[in-house]
Amino acid sequence: MGILLISMGVFLFVSQLNGRAAVEYIVKGWPLVLLLLGGEVLFYSFIHKGEQVNFDLFSIITICLIGLFTLGIYGLWYTGVVPLVAQTVSSQNFVLAAEPETFEVDGTTEKIIIEAPDCSLTVRPVRSRSISVYGSAQVVADSKETAQELLSAHEVLFRKSGEILQVSFNGPRSAKGFGFRADMTGYTVWIPEDVDVEIINRRSLSIHLENLRSNWLIKNLGQVEIFARDGVDAVIKAVVDAEGLLGGNVDWKVIGEGSKYDRPFKIYAEAVLGNGDHTVNVLGGSVTVNKI
C-alpha cells in the first residue's frame, strides 16, 4: 500500500511539472494499481521467507473489491466511457480568433446577400473591392491545439451566381468526444460600400456606416443596431410590429400603418440621415439607429 501511495504522489508531481491534468495519468495508468499491489505482496512474502503469511477477512474483502473495481474500470475503458470522462475533467476554456477570410469582388457583382450566422454579426461597408471576414469563438478543449483544430472546421462560404454574390457561414463542430465544443461568438464582415446588400438576420446585427453608396435590405428576425457617422446620406426605413421597437438618437417619423387586418399590426417609419441619398430598409424585429 505504501508503494501505491508513493506512485500516486509521483503521478501528481509529474502532472504538475508537465502542466497536464493528473486525471490523464491516473486514467491511463490504472492497471499499475494491480501490479503495485501484487508486487507489494510478493515483496512482503520474500522478506518474510519461511514465515506463513496470513490474510484476514478484511484484507481478502479489500482485494476482491479492488479486483472488481479494476475490472469495472476496464469495462468502462473498453466502451469508451473513461476516456470521455477524462477529456471532460481535463477540458479548458479558450477564446480564439478564426483565420480571416477574403474574397475579391469583381465588377460584375451588383448585389451581396449575407445569410447571418447563428451568433452576433457586425457589418462595415468600406472602400475596398473585397470582402473580409473576421470571427471569434469560445472553445472548450483539453489543449490549445485541440481548440484550434475544432475552430478550423468553421467555414465562410462564397457563392457567385450571375450578378449576385452570396455569403453564408458554417459553424465549427459542436463537439469532439464528450464535452469538447467550439461556439462562434461573433463575425465582423467588411464589404464594398458601393454594392447593394441584402442581409437575412436572425439574431443580433450591428451595422457601422462611415460612408454609404448603395442600397440595403435587411430581413430581420432579431435586433438591428445601426451606427452612422456624420456625412452618411441615407434614409433608414423600418417596418416593425410596434413603435416601441424603434430606438436610438435619431428622429423617427411614422409614415404609415398597416391594415387593421394585419396580424401582427405593422408600423412604417423612417429616419433621414444627411441628404438621404441611399436607402436602408429593415423589415421586422427591432431597429436602433444612433448618430455618432
What layout of secondary structure does this protein have?
Elements: H1 2-18, H2 22-28, H3 32-47, H4 57-78, H5 81-89, E1 92-97, E2 101-104, E3 111-115, E4 120-126, E5 130-141, H6 144-151, E6 155-161, E7 164-170, E8 181-192, E9 196-201, E10 204-209, E11 216-220, E12 223-228, E13 234-240, E14 246-248, E15 253-257, E16 267-273, E17 278-283, E18 286-291
Parallel strand pairs: 3-7, 3-9, 4-8, 4-10, 9-11, 10-12, 11-17, 12-18, 13-17, 14-18
Antiparallel strand pairs: 1-5, 2-5, 5-8, 6-7, 13-16, 15-16
The run of helices and strands is HHHHHEEEEEHEEEEEEEEEEEEE
* Helical residue percent band: 25-40%
Q: How many beta-strand elements?
A: 18
- The stretches of 5 or more residues where confidence is low (pLDDT under 50) are none
Mean pLDDT rating: 82
Number of domains: 2
Give a quick account of the main beta sheet: strands, pairing sense, barrel closure: 9 strands, mixed
**Straight-line distance between termini:** 72 Å
Number of helices: 6
Shape: elongated
The secondary-structure class comes to alpha/beta
What percentage of amino acids are in beta strands?
Answer: 35-45%
- C-alpha Rg (nearest Å): 31 Å
List keywords for this structure.
292 residues, alpha/beta, 2 domains, 9-stranded mixed β-sheet
Describe the structure.
The chain is of the alpha/beta class and 292 residues long. It folds into 2 domains: 2-89, no CATH class; 92-291, no CATH class. The protein is built from 6 helices and 18 strands. It starts with a helix and ends with a strand.
